[in-house]
Amino acid sequence: MSAALRMPSVPAPLVAADPAPADPAPATPAPMTSEPSTGELRQALPLITVRDLRVAYDTKPVLDHVDLDLFPGEMVALLGASGSGKSTLMRSLTGFAPISGGSVRVAGHDVTNLRRGELRTLRSEVGQVFQQFNLVPRMSVLTNVLAGALHHAGPINWVGGFSGADRRRALALLDRVGIAHKASEPARSLSGGQQQRVAIARALMQRPRAILADEPVASLDPKLADAVLALLRQIAAEDGIPVLVSLHVLPLALAHSDRIVGLRHGEMLVSARTSELDAADLAVLYADDAHDGHGHATGAAA
Ligand SMILES: Nc1ncnc2c1ncn2[C@@H]1O[C@H](COP(=O)(O)OP(=O)(O)O)[C@@H](O)[C@H]1O
Ligand SMILES: [Mg+2]
């Protein structure tokens, strides 16, 4: 069991080797450590900062003192068994979860204390990708991508309201994700992998400051899953935005992320660079409760 596992019960910093400041407030970046590999990712301040987050549905706690930082340019895999709280954590970042404590900052927005109208802005700035793609099946691929622009324009311009510039941009994004030749086809005629590329282009149409992808490859076969995750990672790096992607296949997480965070029963038990982890380190996330009297990682060092 590597020393990379820990239980960050204290607010900051999450990872001992993490050279970034835990709090976005300081004006000067923390000094770099001697870690060169992902160091350039960490020179910026985190775009998303979660501290001591608690979420409860009715009285049932679902997220328990969760800390998380997401930095520009990094692809972070979110792991955890079904029901561990992955989707709830993602929903917390866009104001869709009943937060009962702690703080969530996303692109400068204090999600737990939004001003009037700010929720809409927040959601327009965060691109989302879902397992079932959530396209409008009978509409063209191009129109589905253009729908991403409605986040900014409001719902009024749905029919014929897209500008030439929007259309050119949507086509360029379809080209970027490799399916420009499908622009005029109905979305339903595309394969699953192609539909997910459309959904990614739609998210990019928002000019997102971060992308949240909740199980984006769970409906795709392994080869297509690899390609979609590689695309998301490329977008993170090229556009300098954090991409948080929940996954349940460990090899995919190990192959396609810069960092892995892992939830178990709503607690963040893993937070480490992917290069420091292997499958055995992640077993704690899926450990059988019957054999784990305390519900915690054993041998965790921090
Ligand atoms: N809207 C909701 N109302 C009540 N309980 C919920 C709701 N959404 C999620 N939960 C509960 O929260 C826990 C975490 O769910 P979820 O975040 O969907 O986990 P994951 O995405 O890791 O499978 C589960 O026990 C689930 O039943
Ligand atoms: Mg889920």
UniProtKB/TrEMBL annotation:
InterPro entries: AAA+_ATPase, ABC_transporter-like_ATP-bd, ABC_transporter-like_CS, ABC_transpr_PhnC, MetN_ABC_transporter-like, P-loop_NTPase
SMART domains for the chain: AAA (SM00382)
Keyword Transmembrane helix: no
Coiled-coil boundaries: none
Alphabetically ordered keywords of this record: ATP-binding, Cell membrane, Membrane, Nucleotide-binding, Translocase, Transport
GO molecular function: ATP binding
Domain called ABC transporter: residue spans: 48-290
Region annotated Disordered, chain positions: 14-43
Domain of life: Bacteria
Protein name: Phosphonate ABC transporter ATP-binding protein
Source organism phylogeny: Bacteria, Bacillati, Actinomycetota, Actinomycetes, Micrococcales
